[in-house]
Amino acid sequence: MKVCVKCTHVISFFPRSHLHHMELSNKTRISEFFLLGFSEEPELQPLIFGLFLSMYLITVFGNMLIILAVSTDPNLHTPMYFFLANLSFVDICFTSTTVPKMLWNIQTQSKVITYEDCITQMNFFIIFSVLDDFLLSVMAYDRFVAICHPLQYTVIMNPRLCGLLVLVSWIMSVLYSLLQTLMVLRLSFCTEVEIPHFFCELNQMIQLACSDTFLNDMMMYFATVLLGGAPLAGVLYSYSKIVSSIRRISSALGKYKAFSTCASHLSVVSLFYCTGLGVYLSSAATQSSHWSATASVMYTVVTPMLNPFIYSLRNRDIKGALRRFSAMAAIKGLIVLG
């Protein structure tokens, strides 16, 4: 067997560290990912497109109605509805980070997403998912003060504190998302990376990395316990105090009125945490990325879509405000047409 002397001279000309740097740079110079989505069968694409377009439009329209009702009706200018309007805004942004790109890919029959767009999508998805978690815990605290300390409610839940709670939630969400994004940016990826999901999800990005992901895994698990467990513990503590306060009310009518003020929020909290926990447990049990992508639709799309229905159907104030807003819009429309 002949050995090419010229080749050995060329290879020996470069130090090992330089060759390693060249090999690493080839890994990190990835320009795009491929979002595999739910199914590659062409006959299912129109069905998936129509289903997700409908859910997205319902989500945006329903949450926009909540925001407009709260902002235009003076009767809803209270801490509870202030937080609800913020939750509706976050739900619109939460869904808008993933669904429009998926719809665009189906429409153009392309699964490509650039590296920069993928990192950006992941960054905003983390921000709004953590914000959802924080706002639900803040709303639980609001209900705790309203039921357990009704006489001090207006003093405790003053506009300054309400604005501060929302601001702190935004700051913590942005800082956490920035930290996770910077840690993903340090990872190197192989070429032609396929993401078995319909959006760039943090866990999928870490699993596809070619470099060492120990720090990323530890940070993700620690953040899940801290940012997921702490708000959930706050919600559970608040509702344990609420239940004990309701049990001390003597009249059945008083118990019903007290419970009705937090029934909608309790439904939304149960839906959010149960779907999120269900997705985590199902993906851990099946180890199937396709099933994980399908199950994640529950908390990324279905939950934001159902929140306006839960609050409007179970809340007399919201239904009254929506009726007044619809009547006002109809009158203005008639004036314009006349």
Automatic annotation (TrEMBL):
Q: Name one GO cellular component term.
A: membrane
SUPFAM superfamilies, sorted? Family A G protein-coupled receptor-like
Which parts pass through the membrane? 47-68, 80-99, 119-141, 161-179, 218-237, 258-281, 293-313
GO MF term set? G protein-coupled receptor activity; olfactory receptor activity
Highest taxon listed in the record's lineage:
Eukaryota
Keywords annotated in UniProt: G-protein coupled receptor, Membrane, Olfaction, Receptor, Sensory transduction, Transducer, Transmembrane, Transmembrane helix
* Principal cellular location given in the protein's record: membrane
Regarding the membrane, this protein is recorded as: Multi-pass membrane protein
Localization annotation: Membrane
Ranges for domain G-protein coupled receptors family 1 profile come to: 62-311
What is the documented function of this protein? Putative odorant or sperm cell receptor.
Read off the PANTHER family from this record.
OLFACTORY RECEPTOR (PTHR48001)
> What protein name applies here?
Olfactory receptor-like protein OLF4
List the taxonomic lineage: Eukaryota, Metazoa, Chordata, Craniata, Vertebrata
